[in-house]
Amino acid sequence: VTLKVAPLYAALERLSASGWVEADGDERVEGRTRRYFRLTDSGRLRLEAEVERIEQRARLARQRLRPGWAATAIGATP
Question: Rounded to whole angstroms, what are the CA distances from 2 to 28, 40, 62?
């Protein structure tokens, strides 16, 4: 995924407003301000929950890729 600067900072501002990240300094690079953020404790917990949700869906998708899944899912014999 490639994000432009404006949508990236907009997303970071939303995450900050939710309390999931917080500003962690800034610096000037080639005349532009580069801002840094870090996860908060609640952000880390939220990220862990999101990773678990994605992993569960990935496991389900892997199961559904196995031969015979569709027939088994509707009660038929594969």
Answer: 22, 24, 27
- Burial per residue of 33-55, b for 16 or more beta-carbon CB atoms within 10 angstroms, e otherwise: eeeebeebeebeebeeeeeeeee
Tokens of 41: 């404790």
From 4-8, 21-25, 46-50, 70-74, the region with the lowest mean pLDDT: 70-74
Single pTM value for the model: 0.68
Nearest to 12 by CA among 33, 43, 45: 43
Gyration radius of the chain's alpha carbons: 21
d(C-alpha 73, C-alpha 3), whole Å? 39
Select from 62, 58, 78 the least CA-distant residue to 70: 78
